[in-house]
Amino acid sequence: MNNDASARSILGAVGLIVALLVGFALLPRVVRRPTGASVGRPAPDFTLALVANGSSLGDAAGEPPRNLELSALHGHPVLLDFWATWCEPCRLQAPIINQLARRWRDRGVVVVGIDTDTADQGDPKVFAQAHDLSYPIVHDSVGMAARAYEVDEMPTLVLVSRLGKIVAVRTGLTDEAELERLVRQAL
After folding, report:
1. Taking the chain, what is the end-to-end CA distance rounded to the nearest angstrom?
2. Main-chain dihedrals φ then ψ at residue 24, nearest 5 degrees
3. Do 39 and 160 contact (CB within 8 A), yes or no?
4. Per-residue pLDDT reduced to its tens digit, 38-71
5. What are the φ/ψ torsions at residue 44 (nearest 5 degrees)?
6. What angle do CA 67, 125, 144 make, to 5 degrees?
7. Mind giving me the DSSP string for 3-67?
8. How big is the CA angle at 117 (ends 116 and 120), to the nearest 5 degrees?
9. Maximum Cα–Cα distance for the chain, whole Å?
10. Which of 29, 56, 158, 178 is 20 to 30 A distant from 63 in Cα terms?
11. Is the pTM of this model over 0.70?
12. What's the CA gap between 112 and 110, in Å, rounded?
């Protein structure tokens, strides 16, 4: 065997090894079972501490609940806004979400802000007050809801239909026109 054939053989073997390694690295993504925030699936239920703006969810006596349970909102389209106080895109999107919440409230749309900060990162109640947010804010301090919805980027929006199915998921900044389109889709 000459040197050119030997070099081609070695390069071919190296190429095959690299292709196999890349294939194995991608395998978990290919065979991953859809869970969490997969469009078309039932929205995972959660119960989280309500930290701001719970008066719209009050009981017959007008007392705001201490916790918010997603299943209690069944029958309403729900926009879940996963955010954190340290997240600059979340800060930019908060006024857009707030306008949408006010505009669609009378049509039965419920917006829920889900703060994902740990105790040492920020105070969601202070953030909500400072930004004049009008929609209910819950605190997912241990990441239970974020894990259930497979949130790994802030902000993440999850739109849930009246029937409790996930109809859309968006990560990063979402503009007002796209949010309006998504909410109309959920009605």
Report:
1. 71
2. -65, -35
3. no
4. 899 999 999 999 999 877 665 555 666 789 999 9
5. -60, 135
6. 50
7. HHHHHHHHHHHHHHHHHHHHHHHHHHHHHPPP-SS-TTSBPPP-EEEEEE--GGG--TT-PPPSE
8. 165
9. 91
10. 158
11. yes
12. 6
